[in-house]
Amino acid sequence: MNVFATRILPAEGSRLLRENGVDLIEYSEKTELRPEELIRQCAKADALISSGPNKLNRNFFSHCRHLKAVSLLSVGFDNVDLTAATDYGIPVGNTPGVLNNATADTAFLLMLSVARNAFYMHRSILEGKWGFYEPTANLGIELNGKILGIYGMGRIGMNFARKCAAAFDMDIYYHNRRRNVEAEMEIGAKWVPFDVLLSLSDIISVHASLNPESAHAFNVATFKKMKSSAIFINTARGAIHDERDLINALTNGEIYGAGLDVMLNEPCSPDNPLLTLPNVCVLPHIGSATVEARNAMSILAAQNILAALKNDRMPHVVNPEVYIRRVASGDFSGK
Question: H helices then E strands: how many in the chain?
Answer without folding.
Answer: 13, 12
